[in-house]
């Protein structure tokens, strides 16, 4: 399917271009170029993998061909990263070959980019502990960890010149709405009546969630809080996500997401009511036939929902004895109570 550059304009006359880039094989993200008087801002940079950099250049070329906008990466004077996931920041070293624009990210995600190798090692150990906690087999553990680390070592630590927090105003254009859950430093950016929702709110699918026991600031608790933050916004006429199509009815989409989360909670509760299970067993029941990286994502997502239920006292582990030693528990079985 052909991916085309889309153009939007706010009521104040700010021009927005959506540049589709293939961040992984057959998986696309939206990079946004915002043009407002002297500010030429790039929101996210793609992954830097595969066709991503090529697609970014193709998108800039299409600005003139489709819209008569004579701009290149060299004219970009501000870069804003919506969150520190590789499909949104991995193209940063490539982009910085063309421009000396300062890069900004939420303070909670700064360490991912400025200390990338150290953060990767820390996150890998946390994921390994979670998978053992979740009840995967030794062979499955090795397989999933191998997939997690694949291609992640290609990115090198990069500088971040600016950080921001909830409520800050950037470039005298964007109001920051802090929306953690998918990522500790995930933000939405409001520009007039337009909301850049990054991966927090997508048109068709729900963003990936992982439990806080892997990374603080993620998880269902934070994600729901972030959705509530967005639900309080008035006057949003257009929502532009980090993937998929634009959203024209934000309240309706929020209702759908809240309902989807509730269905997952009820499904997990029903499965645990039938019999106690590990997170891995729950994932296999809920997401049958997942393979490759999707298998890891499924286990992490179920882990986030089980963690949410545990923190609210709806589920509890049944195979951790009071006299267990201090080693991290493995193959933890949960029950509904």
UniProtKB/TrEMBL annotation:
Domain Metallo-beta-lactamase: residue ranges: 28-243
InterPro entries membership: Metallo-B-lactamas, RibonucZ/Hydroxyglut_hydro, Sec-metab_biosynth-thioest
Highest taxon in the source lineage: Bacteria
Pfam families according to UniProt: Lactamase_B
Signal peptide: none
Database matches in PANTHER family: ENDORIBONUCLEASE LACTB2, METALLO-BETA-LACTAMASE SUPERFAMILY POTEIN
Name of the protein this chain belongs to: Metallo-beta-lactamase domain-containing protein
Organism: Herpetosiphon geysericola
Species lineage: Bacteria, Bacillati, Chloroflexota, Chloroflexia, Herpetosiphonales
């Amino acid at each position: 399917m052909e991916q085309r550059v889309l153009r939007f304009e706010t009521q104040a006359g700010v021009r927005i271009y959506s540049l589709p880039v293939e961040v992984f094989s057959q998986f696309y993200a939206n990079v946004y170029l915002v043009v407002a008087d002297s500010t030429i801002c790039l929101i996210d940079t793609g992954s830097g993998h595969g066709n991503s950099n090529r697609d970014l250049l193709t998108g800039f070329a299409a600005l003139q061909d489709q819209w008569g906008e004579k701009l290149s990466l060299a004219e970009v004077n501000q870069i804003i990263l919506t969150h520190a996931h590789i499909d949104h920041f991995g193209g940063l070293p490539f982009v910085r070959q063309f421009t000396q624009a300062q890069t900004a990210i939420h303070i909670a995600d700064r360490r991912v980019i400025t200390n990338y190798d150290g953060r990767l090692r820390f996150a890998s150990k946390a994921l390994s502990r979670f998978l053992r906690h979740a009840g995967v087999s030794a062979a499955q553990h090795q397989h999933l960890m191998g997939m997690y680390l694949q291609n992640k070592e290609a990115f090198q630590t990069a500088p971040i010149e600016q950080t921001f927090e909830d409520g800050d105003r950037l470039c005298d254009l964007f109001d920051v709405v802090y929306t953690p859950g998918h990522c500790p430093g995930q933000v939405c950016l409001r520009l007039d009546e337009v909301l850049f929702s990054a991966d927090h709110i997508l048109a068709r699918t729900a963003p990936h969630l992982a439990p806080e026991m892997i990374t603080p600031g993620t998880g269902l608790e934070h994600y729901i809080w972030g959705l509530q933050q967005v639900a309080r916004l008035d006057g949003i006429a257009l929502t532009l996500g980090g993937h998929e199509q634009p959203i024209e009815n934000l309240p309706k989409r929020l209702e759908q997401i809240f309902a989807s989360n509730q269905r997952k909670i009820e499904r997990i509760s029903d499965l645990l009511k039938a019999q106690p299970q590990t997170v891995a067993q729950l994932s296999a029941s809920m997401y049958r036939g997942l393979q490759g990286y999707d298998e890891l994502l499924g286990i992490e997502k179920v882990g986030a929902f089980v963690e949410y239920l545990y923190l609210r006292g709806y589920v509890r582990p049944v195979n951790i004895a009071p006299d267990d030693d201090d080693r991290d528990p493995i193959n933890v079985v949960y029950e509904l109570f």
